[in-house]
Specification:
mainly alpha, 6 helices, 65% helix
Length: 138
């Protein structure tokens, strides 16, 4: 059986190679998934869970191994893989909704990254209306 804590930490460690926006979304998703499976003891559910996350980790390590930080910036990173239509159709409603939310979060992150890089290219500051931003000091 896979050591859950070791797998979890390796995934988060590998996420450090991702662009900031991808890392943020990925870390949140991984934490939520592992947290939701923390109390599961039935091997029928745990084995596929760990198999899929181990496959994800292997793929992510392979895809991020030779990438420099300059190549990682921007939306076309070459990270991830396309999901088979058959796999998507077999998802239950909760997982399909979760996948849609993850997709929307990644698209939003890409749009924000594009705005930030456009603002930096123009030499101006890109200020958001985020209420949680720290106050400016004089």
């Amino acid at each position: 059986m896979v050591n859950a804590k070791h797998l979890f930490r390796n995934i988060l460690r590998t996420h450090r190679r991702l662009p900031q926006e991808m890392r943020f979304v990925g870390d949140q998703y991984v934490r939520a998934e592992f947290r939701s499976h923390r109390a599961v003891t039935d091997k029928r559910f745990l084995e596929p869970f760990f198999t899929q996350w181990t496959s994800y980790l292997d793929l992510l390590k392979e895809q991020t191994q030779d990438l420099s930080s300059e190549r990682m910036e921007g939306s076309s990173t070459g990270i991830g893989k396309h999901l088979d239509a058959d796999l998507i159709e077999r998802l239950d409603d909760d997982k399909a909704e979760q996948l849609l939310e993850l997709h929307q979060a990644s698209v939003t992150s890409e749009e924000e990254a594009a705005k930030n890089s456009d603002g930096a290219k123009q030499g101006g500051a890109n200020v958001s209306n985020n209420a949680s931003a720290p106050p400016k000091r004089a």
